[in-house]
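Need residues for this backbone.
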């Protein structure tokens, strides 16, 4: 690489200093000759010295590019800049085509062609097209640059889609990925230039015509990443290449609202025109955020081996070996490979969620502070879009899925002692390892050896006597669990004298050593909720930011059509819907766990506002209807949280609303309350026992609700 860099620097220096000696024609000819010689030598050295040939090919192709640019400058000031750019682009395109042609030359022994030819074409052809597009008769510089960059991006897309790969190379898909990167850079320039053309200083319909060109070019980049696959593995191209196209499409469509604003008749009010211009951008951003939360992703399945399950709080079904390989590494059939190829990637979902939520947050914060109904409609529409995307994210989080979970089984050693059974030692036994299935073993008489009378060895007081002599008579001793071949093993045993039938339990004679407690990790497949993924966290975070902004903004500068309890109530509806979905998907979830956040956000703010503000008949009526509906819902469905919550809110709300009339009534007829209290005490005393039993029964029934 250093040698190639030095050669290129030398060519640039020669082209700079040789102008006074050789003139335009002479220096261009010299550079072209040097480049052609370098390329010819690289072709000749390719079968023997590939690294040297690669460097010479790069140096020669760069020299040819410099020569093409020098040829375009011949003619001096008499040649216009557009014509010179057209000539330079055509010559550079020709040199890139020559490089692709050299790639087709067959090499001996089946060697792959040099990578310099294809990589040079990937970078040179888009630049050549961009130079040739400079000659287009478009007076607006920003619009012309948008077209130039878009055409360069389309050229790189075609190279990525149509170029062939060679599996013999170390990275056969490198040229295709490089072409997509070049297309992304060119289209980013086109998108930025398009943003500058949407204002009032440029032609409206020319800028509007550029919008589909830029969007279709970005769609082409995404299409290539779906259609073309990796040469060796058959997997899709890196999904990270889709992040920038998805983000660019969302922002280009969002910025185009200025074009819509310019198209609307000026007879309309400015705020109304802004509302109708911003609503399409809100729809696009909402659709992007909802699609990111709702569309399925690529599922990674694992091959499992059913074994005994481990009881957990979840629902384990089958054991997963620790060396499990995801089955998406090698597609089992064409249908599965196609489904995985066209599955929505994580990069696309993150890009759609991040950029769509950002556009919606900007609309919420930017339009809510303006005066009038149209800005309020725009802001609330964007806020509803965020709430809808958040709802889809949390609905998706409740879906049951199978997840691997590692558990540990504690294996504790048996009580140790001189007669403790130990596992058999693996050794060169005649029959080899024992089979898993027990085989019937014929009973063979075992000769009893006379045991000399001697004093029994003292046993430690720490260990109890594990001898089965007290449980089994000598004549009814259980048969040996080991084959006779092991019982007649030539390995010596030294049983204790008090051990019954030592030949039937040969391993009881080995003193055991206490083993530490060991935990054996094991994987099991359990059924759990999918949970909120990273995309859901993004959308939820933007929704929380928008809610906090709207809440504090309404507290600082109250608006009659958007009070603070309305904002909290909208969030409460979404939270309550997510809680209901959790209870439907998971029957063991109790109502307090799933529903209390939604019920609190739905009714508590309105109740607090009714305490601190003058009485509002619409708010009081709506809160009364909500509390009554929640109470009836809890009573009909047998849900504890809505029943208690609705009852408390309904009672408190009625007392709050009726308190002014109650205060006036109490000042004039205070003795009525004493009469009511006395009657209640008399009735309670008369029916104390029955009332106590009824209250206990009622408390029990409420506690049994879900």
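Answer:
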């Amino acid at each position: 690489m250093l040698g190639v860099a030095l050669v290129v620097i030398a060519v640039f220096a020669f082209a700079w200093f040789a102008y006074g000696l050789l003139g335009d024609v002479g220096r261009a000819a010299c550079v072209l000759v040097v480049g052609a010689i370098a390329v010819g030598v690289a072709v000749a050295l390719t079968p023997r010295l590939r690294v040297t040939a690669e460097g010479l090919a790069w140096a020669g192709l760069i020299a040819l590019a410099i020569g093409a640019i020098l040829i375009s400058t011949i003619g001096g000031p008499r040649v216009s800049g557009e014509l010179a750019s057209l000539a330079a682009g055509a010559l550079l395109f020709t040199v890139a085509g020559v490089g692709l042609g050299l790639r087709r030359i067959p090499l001996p022994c089946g060697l792959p062609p040099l990578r310099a030819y294809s990589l040079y074409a990937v970078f040179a052809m888009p630049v050549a097209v961009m130079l040739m597009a400079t000659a287009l008769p478009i007076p607006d510089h920003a619009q012309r640059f948008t077209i130039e960059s878009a055409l360069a991006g389309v050229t790189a897309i075609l190279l990525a889609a149509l170029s062939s790969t060679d599996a013999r190379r170390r990275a056969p898909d490198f040229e295709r990925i490089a072409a997509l990167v070049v297309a992304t850079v060119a289209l980013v320039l086109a998108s930025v230039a398009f943003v500058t053309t949407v204002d009032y200083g440029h032609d409206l319909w020319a800028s509007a015509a550029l919008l589909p060109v830029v969007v279709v070019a970005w769609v082409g980049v995404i299409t290539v990443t779906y259609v073309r696959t990796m040469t060796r593995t058959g997997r899709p191209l890196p999904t990270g290449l889709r992040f920038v196209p998805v983000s660019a499409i969302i922002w280009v469509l969002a910025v185009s609202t200025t074009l819509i604003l310019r198209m609307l008749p000026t007879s309309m009010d400015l705020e109304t025109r802004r509302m109708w211009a911003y609503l399409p951008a809100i729809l696009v951003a909402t659709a992007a955020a909802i699609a990111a939360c709702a569309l399925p992703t690529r599922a990674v399945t694992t091959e499992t081996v059913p074994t005994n399950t481990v009881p957990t709080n979840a629902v384990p079904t089958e054991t997963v070996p620790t060396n499990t390989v995801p089955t998406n590494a090698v597609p089992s059939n064409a249908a599965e490979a196609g489904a995985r190829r066209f599955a929505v990637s994580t990069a696309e979902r993150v890009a759609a969620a991040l950029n769509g939520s950002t556009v919606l947050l900007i609309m919420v914060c930017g339009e809510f502070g303006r005066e009038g109904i149209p800005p309020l409609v725009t802001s609330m529409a964007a806020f509803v879009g965020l709430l809808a995307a958040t709802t889809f994210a949390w609905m998706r989080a409740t879906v049951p899925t199978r997840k691997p979970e590692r558990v540990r089984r504690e294996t504790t050693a048996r009580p140790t002692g001189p007669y403790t059974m130990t596992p058999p030692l693996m050794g060169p036994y005649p029959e080899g390892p024992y089979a898993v299935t027990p085989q019937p073993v014929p009973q063979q008489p075992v000769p009893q050896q006379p045991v000399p009378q001697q004093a029994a060895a003292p046993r430690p007081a720490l260990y109890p006597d594990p001898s089965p002599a007290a449980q089994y008579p000598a004549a009814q001793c259980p048969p040996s669990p080991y084959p006779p071949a092991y019982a007649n093993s030539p390995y010596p045993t030294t049983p204790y004298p008090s051990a019954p039938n030592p030949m039937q339990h040969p391993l009881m004679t080995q003193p055991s050593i206490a083993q530490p407690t060991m935990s054996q990790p094991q994987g099991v497949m359990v059924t759990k909720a999918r949970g909120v993924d990273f995309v859901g966290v993004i959308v939820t975070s933007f929704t929380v930011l928008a809610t906090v902004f709207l809440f504090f903004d309404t507290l600082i500068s109250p608006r009659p059509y958007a009070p603070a309890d309305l904002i909290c109530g909208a969030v409460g509806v979404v939270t309550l819907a997510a809680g209901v979905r959790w209870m439907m998907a998971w029957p063991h979830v109790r109502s307090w766990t799933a529903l209390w956040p939604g019920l609190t956000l739905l009714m508590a703010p309105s109740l607090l506002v009714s305490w601190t503000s003058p009485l509002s008949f619409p708010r009081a009526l709506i809160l009364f209807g909500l509390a009554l509906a929640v109470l009836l819902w809890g009573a009909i469905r047998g849900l504890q949280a809505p029943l208690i919550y609705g009852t408390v809110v309904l009672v408190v709300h009625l007392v709050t609303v009726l308190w002014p009339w109650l205060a006036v009534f109490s000042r004039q007829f205070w003795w009525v309350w004493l009469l009511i209290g006395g009657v209640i005490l008399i009735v309670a005393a008369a029916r104390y026992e029955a009332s106590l039993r009824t209250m206990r029964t009622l408390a029990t029934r409420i506690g049994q609700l879900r």
